[in-house]
Amino acid sequence: MIFSISGYWKDDQSEFDGYLVKVGGMGEDDEKIFFYFEEEDEIKQMVEDGLETGEDFVITSYEKYI
Question: Which of 30, 40, 48, 65 fits 4 for a cystine, CB–CB 3.0-4.6 Å?
């Protein structure tokens, strides 16, 4: 399943929108995928964690893309 995320980069607070992330394995369209997750719950957790995530970015919202 693919989701579209919005958020911002921690270092300079610049926002992004429409980045594609994928839950599950890799596929043919991988060059379009920004990040991979094992489960949708990981995305939800990143939204909840905000700045406390271990990544260089913060996800503020997401929606199902495909």
Answer: 65
Give backbone dihedrals phi and psi of 63, rounded to 5 degrees, phi first.
-150, 155
* β-strands 57-64, 15-23 pairing: unpaired
Using 50 as the pLDDT threshold, list the residues of the chain that sit under it.
Answer: none
* Residue 38 region by backbone torsions, left for phi larger than 0, else alpha for psi between -120 and 50, else beta: alpha
41: left (phi over 0), alpha (psi -120 to 50) or beta: alpha
pLDDT for the residue 29: 63
The helix/strand/coil state of 11 is coil
- Rounded to two decimals, the pTM is 0.88
